[in-house]
Amino acid sequence: MRILGINALFHDPAAALVIDGVTVAAAEEERFSRRKHGKRPVPFSAWELPGQAAAWCLSQAGLRPADLDAVAYSFDPRLARPADTMGLHDPWDHLRLTYAREAPGFLSEALPGLDPALVHFVPHHMAHAASSAYAAPGAENSSVLVLDGRGEATSHLAARRTGNHLEPLHGQELPHSLGLVYEELTAHLGFLRSSDEYKVMALASYGTPRLLPELRRHVHPTGDGGFRATGVPWQELCPPCRPGEAWTQAHADLAASTQAALEETLLDLARWLHGQTHDGVLTLAGGVALNCVANSRLAREGPFSRVWVQPASGDAGTALGGALLLSAGAGHTPRPPAGADLGRGWSDAELEAWLKTAQVPFERPEDVAETVAEALAGDAIVAWFQGRAEFGPRALGHRSLLAHPGRVGNLERLNDVKGREQFRPVAPMVLAHRAPEIFDGPLPSPYMLFVHDVAPRWRERIPAVVHVDGTARIQTVEADTEPLVARMLTAFERLTGLPVVVNTSLNTAGRPMVDDPRDALECFGSAPVDLLAMGPFVVRRREFFAAGRPDLATTTAGPQDKGCVR
C-alpha cells in the first residue's frame, strides 16, 4: 500500500512516503524552498503545501500521484473547535480551519492526478504518536507521550502501542499547553516564537530556577494525566528582552525556572502513563520532545527503562506518522527506519558533475575520511556533505560542520561562522564504544536528543563541546550504520588522541540546513569554512579563492593524483 503523508497546516510543512510499512523517503519543504521552517505558523499561510517535498518523495519510488492508495493529512478539522471557545486568542483561526477542510482539493491541485477522495484526515497528535511509536526500534509494546503547542483541540496525548494498534489514553485540552507557554517565553526573551525555543533551553543553563515557586502556580501537573499551563504573567516576573538586545541574569533565571517547571510536569505525566501501562519503553514526539534537557531528566528520573525520541519530533514528523498510522491500519506492520537519513542524496557521478558545472577546483583523495581527519587535526573547519539528508532539525553526520573539540576557541569560532549567539553550545559526535568513558547519560544516543554529563577528566580535553553546566548533547556513531563517519572519527583519534569531533548543522543563522550540492557550495563560498567534503571529493578554500578568481585556481593533487580537476 502506497501512502503519502503530508504536514502543512501550522509550520514545518513536510512529506513522507511509506510503502507497505517501509519508509521510503521523508523531507521538509524548507530544504527545497530555502525558507526556514517552510513558512510562518500563521492562519494566512495554512494553504501552503509541501509540493516540492511531496513530488520528490514520489520520484524516489518512481510513482505518480495517481499511483497512490492514500494520502494522510496530519490534522482533522472535524475535531477542532473555534479558537475563542478553547481560550485561545487567534481571531483568524477560522481561516486555518477552512484551509484544512479544503486540503483534499488543494492537494489534488498541487499533485495533478491525485484523487481528492484518497485524502484522509489524521488527528494531529495521533500522527505525532505514530511517528514515534511505529518508528522506534523494539517498541511493539510501548507507551507514547506527545506534547506540543496545539493540535485540533488539545496540546498533549498519552497513548499506548500494542502491536499494530495505537490506543489514545488521555489528552489535555487547550488552552493549557506546555508548548505554547514555552513559545510565549521565547517571544518574551526577544527570540522568534515557534522557531527559537532551543535558544531558551540553552540560555536556561546560565540561570538559576529562583522563580520556580511562581511558575508552579501557572504550570503544574494535575495528577490525573493532565496539567495546567496558561496565564503566566511574564511581565511581572521579568522585563521583556527586545530582539537583538543583550540578555541579563534575570532573563536566564526566568528561562531556568520555566525549564524546571516543564521538566517537573513531564515527569508527572510519564509517571501517570506508566501507572496505566506498566510498559518498559516510552517514546516521545511533538515539539516539546526536542527539549533534550527535559528528555534526559525523564530518562534519568522517570519510571521507564528506555526512552526513545523521534528525531523529527516537530510537526514535520507528523507527515511520517500519518503515513505510518494508515499503513498500520491497513495491516502492514511498520518497520522502523534504519536512521534519520531519509532525504535527498546524490551519486558520486552527480556530485562530480555539480562541481564541474560550478567550475570549482576539487580533488578526489584516496580516502575522504582520512583527509578530513587530517584537516580537523590541523584545526580546520570542515563542511561535511555526505549521503542522504537528515529528516528533522539535527545534523547527524550528513549535513554537518565539523571542528576540533580540543580547541576552546572553536565554540566562539563556529558561532561566528554561523552568525549565531555566543551562549549557544555545539555538539560532539563520538564513537559509540568510546562514549561511556566520556559521557554519562542515555546511551546509545544516535539522534542528539539527550544531554550527557561530561566526565571531569575529559572537560579540559574537549572544551569546545562542553556547555556552561558541564553537559554536552552528544551523537553516538556506530560503524555498521555510519561507516564513513566512524572511519573519520577513528582517524581523528589516531591523530589527536580524541575520539570526539565537534558536529553542528551545516547552515548559517536563519537559513535551513544545507540540502543539495548548490546549497553546500553557496554556504562554503559565503562562510569562513576551510574545506568542503562533498561525497568522495574535497574543495579547499585556498584554491577556491585563489587570486580572487576560482576559475583560474590550480588544484593541489590528492594522493595518487586521483580525479583532480581544474
Description:
Strands 19-15-20-14-13-21-22 form a seven-stranded mixed sheet, with helices on both faces. A five-stranded mixed sheet has the order 3-2-1-4-5, sandwiched between helices. A five-stranded mixed sheet has the order 8-7-6-11-12, sandwiched between helices. Helices cover 33% and strands 17% of the residues.
Class by SSE composition: alpha/beta
Main sheet attributes: strand count, strand direction, barrel closure = 7 strands, mixed
Query: What shape does the CA trace take?
Result: globular
Instruction: State the distance separating the first and last CA atoms.
Output: 48 Å
Give the averaged pLDDT, no decimals.
Answer: 94
Helical percent range? 25-40%
Helix tally? Answer: 20
Which strand order does the major sheet show?
A: 19-15-20-14-13-21-22
Strand content: 15-25%
Radius of gyration: 23 Å
Count the beta strands: 22
Low-confidence stretches: 552-566
Protein name: Carbamoyltransferase
Keywords: Transferase
Pfam family, one: Carbam_trans_C
Domain Carbamoyltransferase C-terminal: 373-541
